[in-house]
Specification:
Number of strands: 17
Shape: globular
Number of domains: 1
Order of helices and strands: HHHEEEEEEHEEEEHEHEEEHEEEH
Strand content: over 45%
Radius of gyration: 19 Å
Structural class: alpha+beta
Oligomer: single chain
């Protein structure tokens, strides 16, 4: 399905190296363009994001060795086929949201999430791209899609990710009953003595990162929403996100006014990570992670309102700017 986007020989050669948001030469050369536009301060932020060790992934957002780069962030719209929401003729619930992504208080990306539920099936598409001055330094786009069945839990059937910027990142994953079947992930994990190996057991009883951000609910309490462990496999690494209920807050944002369920989160590495890296130890001990959820559409799903993650270099925040039934979301996402 991804073959519609042809990757040239030069790009293929580059994906064999570890992915990064910025190379040092990129910062040095492009950063000079920002002088006089608040860019020197932003450049310092990007330098902070570009230093460090290993990469870990939280709710599908990868906290990188040389980046704070969304794993579930988008590529060209043509890179993946659009989700076909016309497969069933029964009434369906669809919700869309626009998100802003900031790092250390600076806006670095914007995104949109579309979710549709139709007669027991769900489909979601997440798009994120760099924005503002960050785009001058490095332009990155990614798109992630998932389809599956919804009941008391989500049962994903297919997950795809394509990301293009300084490097190419690609995941194609087929799932059945929580078991990974088909899998292709580019680039491959590098060999390292301290890397915890991915085994067959690592690919059982799991969900993809995008499905992990969608919480099925029947109007339960905050504890019903939060008190759960999400077993995630992202194509490279297997990790748990352990959620616990913290509070219920009242929020007001275009398209939604009401309660938001606030969950504390902990990142627990299982396989694929490098045990000896400082960033692995930092994230394992990190208690400064939160996810806020609000009901979407007909109430069968909770969507993220805000996700915040403290990294080794600063706070990464993904926050909804607008929820909508889709009529005005394209215009909002473009602004």
């Amino acid at each position: 399905m991804i073959g519609a986007w042809q990757v040239g020989e030069q790009q293929v050669a580059r994906v064999s190296r570890p992915t990064s948001f910025l190379d040092d030469w990129t910062i040095a050369d492009r950063g000079r363009m920002l002088a006089g536009h608040g860019g020197l301060q932003l450049e310092a932020v990007v330098r902070a994001a570009a230093s460090g060790g290993n990469e870990v992934s939280v709710f599908g957002f990868r906290v990188l060795s040389k980046a704070v780069r969304p794993l579930v962030a988008t590529s060209l719209m043509a890179a993946l086929p659009a989700i076909s929401f016309a497969e069933a003729a029964a009434p369906a619930a669809e919700t869309k949201a626009v998100y802003d992504v900031s790092f250390m208080g600076f806006g670095i990306a914007k995104g949109s999430l579309a979710v549709r539920i139709d007669r027991g099936a769900y489909a979601a598409k997440l798009h994120i791209s760099t924005s503002g001055l960050a785009r001058i330094i490095s332009s990155e786009e990614s798109i992630a899609t998932v389809k599956g069945r919804i009941g008391s839990n989500l049962s994903p059937a297919s997950y795809e990710l394509m990301s293009r910027g300084d490097k190419v990142t690609q995941v194609t994953m087929g799932l059945s009953g929580g078991r990974i079947g088909k899998l292709r992930a580019v680039p491959e994990l590098s060999q390292a003595d301290d890397r915890v190996p991915i085994t067959a057991a690592s690919k059982r009883n799991v969900i993809d990162p995008l499905s992990a951000a969608l919480v099925p609910t029947e109007g339960g309490t905050g504890a019903d929403v939060c008190d759960r462990t999400l077993p995630i496999f992202d194509g490279w690494t297997r990790y748990d996100i352990r959620l616990t209920y913290k509070s219920t807050e009242t929020i007001k944002v275009p398209g939604y006014q009401g309660d938001a369920i606030v969950c504390g989160a902990r990142w627990v590495p299982v396989a694929g990570h490098r045990e000896g890296r400082e960033s692995t130890k930092f994230m394992r001990d990190n208690k400064d992670l939160e996810a806020w959820f609000v009901p979407a559409g007909d109430g069968r799903l909770m969507l993220p309102y805000k996700i915040s993650v403290r990294t080794m270099k600063g706070m990464l925040v993904v926050k909804a700017r607008q929820f909508d039934d889709g009529s005005d979301i394209a215009e909002a996402a473009a602004n």
